[in-house]
Automatic annotation (TrEMBL):
SUPFAM superfamilies: P-loop containing nucleoside triphosphate hydrolases. SMART domains: AAA, IQ. One of its GO terms (molecular function) is ATP hydrolysis activity. Residues 547-686 form the AAA+ ATPase domain. The keyword ATP-binding applies. Residues 451-464 have a biased composition (Basic residues). InterPro entries: AAA+_ATPase, ATPase_AAA_core, IQ_motif_EF-hand-BS, N-DRC_Component, P-loop_NTPase. This is IQ and AAA domain-containing protein 1. Keywords: ATP-binding, Nucleotide-binding. Residues 326-359, 441-469, 785-809 are annotated as: Disordered. Residues 326-341, 350-359 have a biased composition (Basic and acidic residues). The gene is zgc:153738.
Length: 809
């Protein structure tokens, strides 16, 4: 597509965004909503609309050439993704469920279910810093080296047992005898053929030709008929058409150009900064100094004393030139000294404030009605929208056909950067000057000049610092050790889109009839894209969106828990660590060994971020009672240390712990839920998902889906089986020989049934048990409470819920 197309798409997205912002931030704040259903419906509609904008911005950012525009788009994209996460969180808080069904909204907005897929920006993998690239390269080298060593080990003859050697010799000997026998048979048949030459070869050939030609023609006509009736796709449409190939080539070309333009932009920025430093920095410092001196005297005239110079953390002299009177400023600085506050929108104090408010708010909410939680992304969205309107919306670009950067804009931007640099130097000088002036003027009055000692003390007493146990070791040696120990692993090449699953169309209808629907596999894919892929891929989203440090995937064997973990890593370029109890058993023994292992994993995970720490069989770590057979493995050894280390993960560390379990019952629910703040229940596939799974998985394994293969009855008969079971059944049926036979003997549904029958499906009881386990988790409990309250009366009273819940349980 042309650049004009992407520019137009960007304009559309911004237009929609400004409409949404007008709705979200009205001049008069919205009054609290008493009806929970209406409130959730409003949030869900906003959520769907933001996803549509997100989809557009992802496409625009991927293929727009102009480097400065791409920066603005990226900022908006991050903010939109963050807002989507906030809205999801809002729905979870108000509906007490991780899954939400929006078919009615899709219908109202005239959208297809595919439009609800969470888009994954290409920049997660493409726009990676040079250091990150180098580190990943180093890791790949280590993996290759380890593979080479392993393959060498497997070739060594020492490992071959006598039995294996005999088997090889035997099979070679049998092959030799077979070859001899075949040669003999060939000779015999050749001599027989010579004898038959006398027969009427011509009439025989005609007979065969007749039969063959009529067979071929019948097949051809049948196929043409099906194409004509629209039952089969014409093969010319199955392979990419020349236009499609041309579009893909153009896109690849655009991406190469993007890189060139970006380099040119970076060079230009450097040139402009140097030029500004040379030409304008001196004048800037003079103007600043005179302004600050003027402020000193104005303050003294107004208040009778020289002011306190704003500290560096408060922004230095930039604070002075915010539009305020000197008195206002003085009182503000005095207040600041008494109780240091943070001015940053996204600062931690604000976050904790938000959390406290959240807790208190739940009770107050019940009385006043429902309100949206405070947003960290709306200010960013507003700022992005303003930049678009002020700079880009009406920009005349008739001279910039190639869409290269604009130097004037760089100058405007960099002037602020250089000014900030100059301001730091000027502040230092002026602070000195002010101290001298105070000393000279106030000395006679016997006033001691104030120092910032108190503040500095405060800033020092920060959070507890982690001890670096491996300060003397390089990252490479740490990685090598972790790979050797099997704690750092290579990820499988699967993407989120490979996790198949169809949309469930009945969600809202069932909920309206008070039946809790089971989520579909496409819901699972969506939730994980939201909770894991977006925050791991985007630093901005990870820092400001509701922080998820650990999530737990619960589901029967074969529903794709591991596959999802690998897909998350692939989509975000994450490094995969494996701290599963079975994988760590016997490694790094003792208390110190354990501390060292965890320290190394978390240190490398932070340095190579984004990182995923996989804990398979997560229930083992929290066993109520360790089974006798496993006591030697000591599966609970990480139970204490791991949650503590999790506490040290902050917004800037893109590290996510993902636990998987198929047997959560054997774990202590409370401690499991304390560590894993998000719990995602993965169900067995429903009919429509099974239909898609059979079709795609058979094709993936080399099978051909023809009319002879009744996918519908196969999907119906495989109720209860997971995708893992299906893969097993398909692999056992589709042997190399069977694949070759397909042309004359097409696959049928019946062939897969015996293979399936050998496997145990997920029984209804097992699924019910998982559901009832989920009801014991914090969110499950809340949902039951809310449902019980709803049954009693509306709105639900805070008292009396517990009794009802108990009854239900
Ligand atoms: N939705 C899906 N789409 C395509 N393939 C799937 C899907 N779910 C699972 N699979 C395939 O099924 C097989 C089993 O999946 P996986 O090992 O991830 O399951 P699991 O839930 O981790 O099992 P377990 O609990 O036994 O470890 C894999 O080959 C995987 O590729």
């Amino acid at each position: 597509m042309s650049q004009r197309y992407y520019n137009q798409m960007w304009a559309d997205a911004q237009h929609e965004l400004s409409d949404l912002l007008a709705e979200e931030l009205p001049a008069e704040p919205l009054s609290p909503q008493k009806d929970r259903v209406v409130f959730v419906q409003r949030v869900a509609t906003l959520y769907v609309r933001y996803i549509q904008i997100c989809r557009k911005l992802v496409e625009v950012h991927d293929l727009l050439l102009h480097p400065q525009k791409r920066r603005v788009v990226r900022a908006s994209l991050d903010a939109v993704m963050g807002r989507v996460l906030e809205l999801k969180n809002e729905m979870v808080e108000k509906e007490f469920s991780e899954y939400h069904y929006m078919d009615d909204i899709l219908y109202a907005l005239k959208l297809t279910p595919a439009k609800l897929e969470i888009p994954i920006p290409h920049y997660f993998l493409n726009d990676v810093s040079k250091t990150a690239q180098d580190r990943k390269g180093m890791l790949m080298d280590i993996f290759k080296m380890m593979e080479a060593i392993k393959s060498l080990d497997s070739v060594t003859l020492e490992e071959m047992t006598q039995e294996e050697a005999i088997k090889i010799i035997q099979s070679a000997e049998r092959a030799r005898q077979g070859r001899l026998r075949a040669k003999l048979l060939q000779e015999i048949s050749r001599s027989k053929r010579k004898d038959a030459e006398t027969a009427d070869t011509i009439s025989a050939a005609i007979c065969i030709q007749k039969a063959w030609r009529s067979y071929i023609q019948r097949r051809k006509t049948q196929h043409e008929e099906r194409i004509f009736l629209g039952m089969v796709m014409d093969s010319k449409y199955l392979e990419p058409c020349p236009d499609e190939i041309a579009v893909l080539a153009a896109e690849a070309d655009t991406r190469i150009k993007q890189k060139e333009y970006e380099e040119a932009y970076q060079k230009s920025v450097q040139l402009v900064v140097n030029e500004l430093r040379e030409m304008e920095a001196y004048d800037m410092s003079l103007t600043l100094k005179s302004q600050i001196q003027q402020w000193f005297f104005e303050c003294r005239n107004a208040t009778g004393a020289f002011p306190e110079y704003p500290s560096e953390e408060d922004g230095g002299s930039s604070l002075i030139f915010e539009e305020k009177t000197p008195e206002q400023l003085k009182t503000e600085i005095d207040e600041n000294e008494e109780k240091p506050i943070s001015r940053n929108y996204s600062s931690k104090s604000k976050k904790t404030e938000g959390k406290e408010k959240l807790k208190k708010g739940v009770e107050a909410e019940e009385e006043a009605g429902l309100k949206m939680l405070p947003s960290a992304f709306l200010p960013d969205l507003e700022a992005g929208n303003k930049v678009y309107t002020d700079v880009w919306k009406n920009r005349d670009e008739s001279e910039n056909f190639s869409q290269k950067h604009e130097v004037e804009l760089i100058k405007e931007e960099m002037r602020k950067v250089v000014e900030a640099e100059v301001r730091v130097q000027v502040d230092e000088q002026m602070r000195q000057e002010l101290a001298e002036m105070k000393l000279a003027v106030d000395k006679d009055k016997g006033v001691k000049p104030k120092t910032n000692a108190k503040k500095k003390k405060g800033s020092k007493s920060g959070k507890k610092k982690e001890k670096d146990l491996t300060a003397d070791r390089s990252l490479e040696s740490l990685c090598q050790e972790l790979v050797e120990q099997g704690l750092l692993k290579q990820t499988n090449n699967v993407r989120m889109q490979d996790y198949l699953g169809e949309y469930s169309y009945l969600g809202t209808t069932l909920r309206q009839n008070d039946i809790e629907p089971m989520p579909s596999l496409s819901d699972v894919r969506q939730v994980l894209s939201l909770y894991a892929v977006l925050p791991l891929g985007s630093p901005a989203v990870h820092e400001k969106a509701p922080l998820i440090k650990a999530l737990l995937l619960v589901g029967p064997s074969g529903v794709g828990k591991k596959m999802l973990v690998h897909a998350i890593c692939q989509e975000t370029g994450s490094t995969l660590f494996d701290l599963s109890p079975l994988n760590t058993a016997g490694k790094y023994p003792g208390k110190d060994g354990l501390a060292m292992m965890l320290h190394m994993v978390f240190k490398v995970a932070r340095l190579l971020q984004p990182s995923v720490i996989l804990i398979e069989d997560a229930e083992k770590m929290f066993y109520k009672k360790t089974p006798a057979a496993e006591t030697e493995l000591d599966p609970k050894r990480l139970k204490k240390n791991l949650p503590e280390l999790l506490k040290l993960i902050k917004g800037e560390d893109r590290v996510l712990v993902i636990g998987t379990t198929k047997d959560p019952h054997s774990a202590d629910v409370e401690s499991l839920c304390k560590m894993y703040t998000k719990i995602i229940l993965i169900p067995r596939p429903d009919y429509s998902s099974r239909y898609v799974l059979w079709k795609k998985l058979i094709m993936k394994e080399g099978g051909e889906v023809t009319f002879a293969l009744d996918l519908s009855s196969l999907a119906k008969n495989s109720d209860g089986y997971t995708p893992g079971h299906m893969v097993q059944a398909i692999r056992s049926v589709l042997t190399k020989k069977r694949i070759l036979q397909q042309a004359r003997k097409p696959l049928t549904a019946r062939e897969f049934i015996p293979a399936l029958a050998k496997l145990d499906p997920v029984f209804q009881e097992e699924e019910e048990a998982l559901k009832s386990w989920y009801a014991k988790t914090p969110l499950g409990k809340k949902r039951i409470k809310a449902a019980a309250g709803k049954e009693e009366e509306l709105p639900p009273p805070p008292k009396g819920k517990t009794t009802k819940t108990k009854k239900k349980k």
